[in-house]
Amino acid sequence: MKDLLRTEHLSRGDVDKILTTAREFASNPLKANQILSGKSVAIYMTKPSTRTRLASETAVAHLGGHPIFLRSDDLQLGRGETIADTARIISGFSDAMIIRTFKQSDVDELGRFATIPVINGLTDEDHPTQLLADWTTILEHFGSDFAGRKFAYFGDGNNMANSWLIMGAIMGVHVVVATPQGRFAPASTAVKRAQEIAETTGAKIEILHDAKDAAKGASVLYTDVWMSMGDPESERSEKMKALSPFKVDDSLLSIGASDAVFMHCLPAHREEEVSTSVIDGERSLIWRQAFHRRTTIQAALFHLLHGELNGRE
User: In angstroms, rounded to a whole number, what is the distance separating the alpha carbons of residues 28 and 31?
Assistant: First the structure.
């Protein structure tokens, strides 16, 4: 597998390999600080970023490379140069590329024409590097025995909901997404793909529309902001009303398992999708998740550069 373009492209073996290496990089970030020596990695972002930018630049530096940060107005893409031509040019100057943008099809096209590894740092459909950080955190906290555990996501059926379903299917666990019915539900294509993968891994996929049912006995309660980048402000009132029953608060957390934890990909809007007492409470893992954005991007780069990810057949 040359690229990491979509969560669904990862096999369970690929995920296990990345998570193991990420934990090694967590304790020894400079253990492979020569593989990008004298080389560069292009980091192209058309969306603002805190965690992905910091994690990506630090990961490249820890591998001994030079990160080149590019905004949309730094390239000729905005003046009509094709994605294919851009991919070929960047491939001639860099040894890998990380991209954070809106359209998944743009990332797919970059991967098709680039001769270097391309990593999806977020699109409107998918967020594979975030899910790798999430599952590194889960593995670190609960250990490798997931039997009988339930992993629940609450709120907007956005790119995080899509990725949560697919990664849960890959990991072979009981994964739940709880959203309103209709326009704020997860993409039907993501649900279908998660169900297809679950048939091969033994995972249990549930789409629920009641937050309490989803939280019952869950080991992880996960949420994301309700207004994502690019969402029209005209939808705010409707979205807040529809999603308000899915707020993760102390009452919802208490329905979870006795050792339940809270997770959030950040940034967070306290007292919208999550109560302050939960996100800043002792059962919140948000800072460890954010830390593992670096370790998992570093691990993904390491294995892609060595040609060690096989992909899903």
Answer: 6
C-alpha neighbours within 13 Å on the C-beta side of residue 66: 7
Asked if the model's pLDDT at residue 249 lies above 90, the reply is yes
Give the separation between CA 298 and CA 106, rounded to whole angstroms.
Answer: 23
Model confidence at 218, pLDDT cuts 50, 70, 90, reads very high
Place of tokens 């029209």: 232
Rg (the chain; Cα; Å)? 19
Question: β-pairing, 118-122 with 150-154?
Answer: unpaired
Q: What are the residue ranges of helices labelled H in the chain? A: 12-27, 51-62, 83-93, 104-113, 128-142, 159-171, 188-201, 211-215, 236-243, 250-255, 276-279, 286-305
Q: Can you give the pTM of this predicted structure?
A: 0.96
Q: Does pLDDT of 72 surpass 90?
A: no
Region 110-120 average pLDDT = 98
Alpha carbons 198 and 44: distance in angstroms, whole number? 33
Task: Share the mean pLDDT of the chain.
Answer: 96
223: burial class by Cβ within 10 Å (0-12, 13-18, 19+)? buried
Question: 222: part of which helix (H) or strand (E)?
Answer: strand 220-223
Catalytic residues: 100, 127, 130, 224, 265, 293
Q: Is 291 left (phi over 0), alpha (psi -120 to 50) or beta?
A: alpha
Q: Name residues whose C-beta falls within 8 Å of residue 144's C-beta, 6 or more positions apart in sequence.
A: none
- pLDDT for 189-213, tens place per residue? 999 999 999 999 999 999 999 999 9
Ordered structural domains, the chain, with CATH: 7-127+292-305 (3.40.50.1370), 130-289 (3.40.50.1370)
